[in-house]
Amino acid sequence: MKLFPAILSNKLEQRVQGNALRLLFVSNKQLIDFSSNDYLGLSQSEIIFNETHEYLINNKIIQNGATGSRLLSGNHKLYQETEDFIANFHQSETALIFNSGYDANVGFFSSVPQKGDLILYDELCHASIRDGIQLSHAKAYKFDHNDFEDLEKLILRFRNEHVFPSAVEGRGTLLSEIYIVTESVFSMDGDCPNLEELVQLSDKHNCYLVVDEAHALGVFGSAGEGFVQMLGLQDQVFARIITFGKGLGCHGAAILGSPELRSYLVNFARSFIYTTGLSPHSVATILVAYNYLDKEKKNIETLRENIIHFNQEKNLLGLKQIFVRSKSAIQSAIIPGNEKVKAIANQLQEKGFDVKAILSPTVPEGQERLRFCLHSYNSKEQISEVLGLLSKLIF
């Protein structure tokens, strides 16, 4: 076997020296879960597991794999039924399933914005969005987190640079399009943008608004439809990216939008075109999980009660100052320094609580944090106990 390249070894050593080397761990089921994205516990649902199996048997679908890309042999009949259900559930004209949220974001941003277009994205947008943008031929600039004054300055600067006189005196013609990109719940901070204000700004400047709802599905809305629908803004957003690996407890993602957008993605999104489709079992799990979400509201209500309890407890314990303001299932306590935050996480784990440290460079240096993920299956007693322990370790 050839020697490992020295430059790569050096990069690994830098991670070791910075106490930031990533390792793979097998999940410890004995610890109380405050780390997974399984907000409603649906990944553990025996009902969904058994109903998925029954659905496949009853429909005589005895097949382990998709056998090819969806444009060749992999577009089995379950896809259409599931995409129709998702579109109806989310009050969208269409839905197009991708193999993962990463694939959906990379496929969308690498193909939709064109050369000469502009992408303006929140500085805290997920890595999958950034990776898709890097593959795009459009120019891209980040705006300060949830700062729409900064965003509007960028819009006006771009418009002024790209407006040319038309035949009609006093008017101009726009050279290209602007895409505004945000998340309804940010994955590291757990906070939400003012989407109503952002929609108004997008309409004012004739921009296309794209919202990643990965951490909002199952958390916001009367049936967990997401933040956009909870606000009734679904008809004013150009595209929504919905991810199934979190609140829905399974795998895959969908892009919601117009029939024209769906057709365009089928023809030009490379992460959709050049990959084997999901297996019938995976798609059936998505459909069954959506049906469960549509009918069962208890888990959603319990999760919301736990979020309220967490916020009340951290205030009572004097911890509010170290937490990012959040009304979502993600609660982050800023504890600067990789070594310090890892030490506190280890102590919480030794006490039986699975709380993970998020280190730089995943987050900026000085913004290292403990990331608490709340679930419908966490008890209020567990929440109070873990915050009480944190209070003793911090103060």
From TrEMBL:
Pfam families: Aminotran_1_2 (PF00155). Gene3D superfamilies: Aspartate Aminotransferase, domain 1, Type I PLP-dependent aspartate aminotransferase-like (Major domain). Its cofactor is pyridoxal 5'-phosphate. Keywords: Pyridoxal phosphate, Transferase. It comes from the Bacteria. One of its GO terms (biological process) is biotin biosynthetic process. One of its GO terms (molecular function) is transferase activity. Residues 30-387 form the Aminotransferase class I/classII large domain. The keyword Transferase applies. Pathway: Lipid metabolism. The keyword Glycoprotein does not apply. Belongs to the class-II pyridoxal-phosphate-dependent aminotransferase family. BioF subfamily. This is 8-amino-7-oxononanoate synthase. It comes from Flavobacterium rhamnosiphilum.
